[in-house]
Amino acid sequence: MSLKYTVGDLTIHRIIEQEAPFFPALEFISGLTPEVLAENRAWMREAKALDDQDTLILCFQSYVIKTPHHTILVDSCIGNDKPRPQRPAWNMKTDDNYQRGLAAAGLSVDDIDVVMCTHLHVDHVGWNTRLENGRWVPTFPKARYVFGKTEYDYWAGENAKAEVPPFTDSVLPVVEAKRAEVVKDDFSIGDHARILPTPGHTPGHVAFTFGRGGKEDVVFAGDLMHTPLQLRHPELSPRFDVDPKLAAATRKSFLERYCDTDTLCCTAHVPSPSSGKIKRKGNGFSCEMI
After folding, report:
1. Is 200 among the domain residues?
2. Considering the domain boundaries, does residue 113 fall inside one?
């Protein structure tokens, strides 16, 4: 299992917080039928993406990208000390998995220059903040945090109607600390990092592409795909997608864009190795290990 990749002048580290069976496949993916699951069960189990009880195995991780000029963290996982009663494995969590993952990559929270969030779901913003003397403060004290404007405005609106805990404990404290930058889709960091709009999972979901001079050496796909089954069947969307039809169309377009190219695709939740090159596979696609 590789936790480090080198692509061009980029070094990429995977920081894994959890990797385990997460949700029964037939419950997680709205349009999945027992027949389609049966057709794919053998290779999914061999890929360690499905356990013996037909539960999907998912990875929850951040990526840290070192460019010649910046150290950038993409998506900040689950976090500690946060009330998440609907997810017992996340509720008031106190383990040191994330800190140990950073340390194993030779990193500390002070090394991160920029935190970029593909979207603002609970498992992508958790380590944006940490609890200090009863207050939520930015975990990465020297970083600026980048939030897409469409995504930020959507969740700000939802939070105005009824409290959205991940927004109030993992996003707003960053804004209050004046560490946030709410950006449009033309945002870039130097000559290396750019936004690729990928709506559907959430209204403002984005991917991030990295490469010098507009080249797409690496793309961070966020929640475009949760499981390799969605590469074979791009039409399948999980029940957490805000707009499942749009998400499916975005996923198909994304896979066509990167299919049979040299771009490394890094997913948020597909189990280890989580990253690879997109290839055609039958009527669908696969993500081939590098």
Report:
1. yes
2. yes
CA atoms within 13 A on the CB side of 89: 14
CATH number for 133: 3.60.15.10
pLDDT in tens, 24-47: 999 999 999 999 999 999 999 999
Q: With contact defined as beta carbons under 8 Å apart, do 88 and 103 qualify?
A: no
Q: Give Cα 277 to chain centroid, integer Å.
A: 17
- The predicted pLDDT at position 254 comes to 98
Residue 113 burial (C-beta neighbours within 10 Å; 0-12, 13-18, 19+): middle
| Residue 140 to residue 3: CA distance in whole angstroms | 21
Q: Which domain holds residue 181?
A: 4-212
> Which residue, 156, 262, 266, is CA-closest to 207?
266
| pTM reported for the whole predicted model | 0.96
State residue 103 phi and psi, 5-degree precision: -65, -40
Radius of gyration of the chain (CA): 18
Whether the Cβ atoms of residue 54 and residue 25 lie closer than 8 Å to each other = yes
